[in-house]
Amino acid sequence: MRSFDAAARVLGDLEQRVMEVLWDLSPLTVRDVRARLGKGPAYTTVMTTLDRLFKKGLLAREKDGLAFVYRPALDRATYQRRVVEAAVGPLLEQGAGPVLAAFVDVAAGLSPQHLAALEQLIAAKRRTR
Amino acid sequence: MSILGGIVGFGVVFVLVTLVASALGGGVLASAARALAARGPAAERRAAALAAVIPPLVGAAVVAALLLHSVTSVDHCQAHDHHAHLCVAHGGAWLARPWAVAVAAAAFVITVGRATLLLATLVAAHARVQALASVAHAVDDVRVVDSPRWFCFVAGARRPTIYASTSALCALTDDERAAMLAHERAHVQARDVLWKRLLTAATLAAAPLVRGFVLARWDDATERLRDRDAARVTDPTAVAHALLAMCRGNVVAVAGLGYAPGPSALARRITSVLTPPADERGTPRRLAVVAGAAGVAAALVLVTCADPIHHAFETLLG
Hints:
The complex is a heterodimer.
Chain A: H1 4-7, H2 13-24, E1 28-29, H3 30-37, H4 43-55, E2 59-64, E3 67-72, H5 76-93, E4 100-102, H6 112-128
Antiparallel strand pairs in A: 1-3, 2-3
Chain B: H1 2-31, H2 33-39, H3 41-72, H4 98-135, E1 137-139, E2 142-145, E3 152-155, E4 161-165, H5 166-171, H6 174-190, H7 192-202, H8 208-233, H9 236-249, H10 263-274, H11 283-304, H12 306-317
Parallel strand pairs in B: 2-4
Antiparallel strand pairs in B: 1-2, 3-4
Helix pairs in contact in B: 1-3, 1-4, 1-8, 2-3, 3-8, 3-11, 3-12, 6-8, 6-9, 7-8, 8-9, 8-10, 9-10
């Protein structure tokens, strides 16, 4: 499977629905997936979406006669964990950049001694209140 | 060629004025640190915001005044055979000055580089936040993300949203969790992410070291201000304990690209939330009034003394 960073991009609505179908039951052909999606996308749209998800590394496929059958390359839990890992790391590494406001930016340099000293500071303040 | 020369001439003025103003702003912010700290994080935050916003405004105002003067006043171009002058019609002489071209080109490259970096950061972050949102579970106003990492942050400028990890939420006590979320809700209410982006954009043309310093001061003051906001609706010691607990959980050091608070910054936050100064109310408003009055006075000086200022810049720049 290729780098997950690319796959961490947001899935479109149809891509998400297709993944949900295949996580619930697989392997499936394009026709099977389309049937489970209900009314809506055309056959070629579903086929294109499945191909796109395969190219993103989220689906695996193999030939079954003339048609491809698709199955998820990752189970749902693994996929979600990888999305979180790929997204959270770079976000938090930006620290106090223009992207987010974190409750605690970093713990770099905070030794147990520092933490203990700060704990004592809180305890001292509490006693004087 | 004369128009390009004029752009170089006026560009040099903008660059130099903005650099000097940002250096002065940073210097004032640093020298007034103790006085501002005594007045609380709201005053510090306002002062840092002014130090970020005023320099490009001053640069733009000076260039506007010089442009206006060159367009509306009597044509004095013939009297300028001894040096290049700031004029939209006869600015070609600036192109014959390599230092002026170098200054304008360097400023252009640095500013465009910074803007590109900012844009790329925002685009990449937007995609990551969207990905995170797609796997998060909404619990009231918090998007809960199943993750072993401890985090809680607000993302999104237009629709700021709180993201918190299950690890952080489960590890904190009820009081600490309430304090942490109150802190983040205060960020949401004040639209701090949007302000942070605007200030970052406003400092694109600022002096390099000053830029980082001013933005770091704003960040630092904002965090302490939101700690206070959280303490008002929960309890100061709960906020302090939540800060410590989150630091203990984040044992994996994360190197920040910008300001990264160390032990002293955390100690300052904890001290600040436990002992708020009594006279902090009203100070930010006074600061804004003073800054506004100074801005009006500067505008009046620019308008009434446009001619001597114009000539002073021409003489200064040769």
